[in-house]
Amino acid sequence: MRTSTTHATRLHPESGIAIGPILFVVAILGILAAAIAAGSGSFTAGTSAETSRTRAAAIVQIGQNLKVGMDRIVGLGTDAASVDLNPANTTAADDLFSPTGGGINPPSVTMANATTDLWYYPKFSVPGLGTSADEIVAILRVSSGTCDFINLRTLGSTTAVDNSTGYALGAWLTNASVTVANWPSVLNAQPAGCVRNTTASHTGYFFYQILAVQ
User: For 65, phi and psi rounded to 5 degrees?
Assistant: First the structure.
């Protein structure tokens, strides 16, 4: 008579679900999620500051390009006051934006405070520069954060921007002469920088670049 013997199959020590490692991974993911949630505010602030820094660098470079174009025309014998600053005029030798004149393209407004902002080319006096009230200037409205970084780049500090007082540039039109009140002394003799304007029709923060001293 045969006897049937049933042998129980023993599980290998490595079989089954590795609960320990899975719980460890879940715990790590939870910690990471909490850290991301806590740091999202500071990340946004850092991104905003970096955007302002990038815009400031681009705007300062545009200002330098405009100055180079003006210098080119004046160097060829045209008086600075006779240079045509109208972006629509691009053919004559005295046009800032003509290939045969200043040799540069009209500046972009993509770095401005808003897409509706424009570059203006008024005339006003910066203390310490020139002998008349008709220095030729390029200006563009920018955000307050960009204004800070412009001054940090051009002056080494942001103290030229006063968020409570402001400095009146006056109401300007393209190539118009304006009166400047309360010019900040830290910007005296500075060919480029950023200033806050309080004139009702043009409030905000403005980058400026002196194109020609007269």
Answer: -65, -40
Sheet holding 192-197, edge to edge: 123-124, 135-142, 204-212, 192-197
Which pLDDT belongs to residue 164? 57
Predicted TM-score (pTM) above 0.85 = no
Residue whose entry in the numeric block shows the structure tokens 């590795």: 18
The string of pLDDT tens digits covering residues 82-136 is 999 999 999 999 999 999 999 999 999 999 999 889 999 988 888 888 766 678 9
User: Helices 144-154 & 19-75, crossing angle to 10 degrees?
Assistant: 70
* 134 CB neighbour count, 10 Å cutoff: 17
Residue 49 CA to residue 92 CA, distance in Å, equals 41
> Which residue reads 């830290």 in tokens?
186
135-142 vs 192-197, strand pairing mode:
unpaired
DSSP state letters, 28-92: HHHHHHHHHHHHHHHHHHHHHHHHHHHHHHHHHHHHHHHHHHHHHHHHTT--GGG-B--TT--SS
Contact 193, 155 (CB under 8 A): yes
- Which residues are CB-contacts of 118 (< 8 A; sequence separation ≥ 6)? 109, 112, 140
Residue 11 has pLDDT above 80, yes or no: no
